[in-house]
């Protein structure tokens, strides 16, 4: 009844697993809804809101997703009971009709000074969670220098920021930078 109580069963390709019994429980799926506001208290339109379970069971750590409307409101439907991290990243999804059978789609992942992010843990127990207020904040800049024992490995090298508290990040939207020839990065 809860994703936190799930156990993994390892099965190799072509292998059959026998003698595994598990009960199915009927659970009520919930809706998670609220509004996303930026650091200035204004609604954030068209940004992606995702629920990540932190178990690595969905691509890029993404579970259920939604997009905010003009007023910053979002609704994520059909959420199974469990513990999640609600994430809002600096990614805007834009769709528009191209005429006929054509749909235009573009994604903009916010970087630099205007990118804002939010993350908060939520627990879903089968009841709808409503009126959540999620406030984003601007990211920080990290600078440093990477040193190598011996010679620097060949090729382009990058440093990527991953939050230890928030679990997996959708589409790797944690920030990153190339490592310069002298080992510095920003």
How many strand units? Answer: 13
- Please mark out the parts with pLDDT under 50 across 5 or more consecutive residues, or reply none: 56-62, 166-173
Spell the H/E element sequence.
EEEEEEEEEEEEE
* Tally of separate helices: 0
Give the overall pLDDT as a whole number. 79
From the alpha-carbon coordinates, what is the Rg to the nearest angstrom?
Answer: 20 Å
Share of β-strand residues: 35-45%
Helix content: under 10%
Shape category: extended
Question: What class do helices, strands and sheet pairing give?
Answer: mainly beta
First-last Cα distance: 44 Å
Major beta-sheet overview: 6 strands, antiparallel
Brief digest:
0% of the residues lie in helices and 42% in strands. It is mainly β and 186 residues long.
Describe this structure in words.
- By secondary structure, the chain is an all-beta fold.
- Helices cover 0% and strands 42% of the residues.
- It contains no helices and 13 strands.
- The strands form 4 sheets. Strands 2, 3, 5, 6, 7 and 9 form a 6-stranded antiparallel sheet that branches. A 3-stranded mixed sheet has the order 4-1-8, with no helix packed on it.
- The chain is extended.
- The model is unreliable at 56-62 and 166-173 (pLDDT under 50).
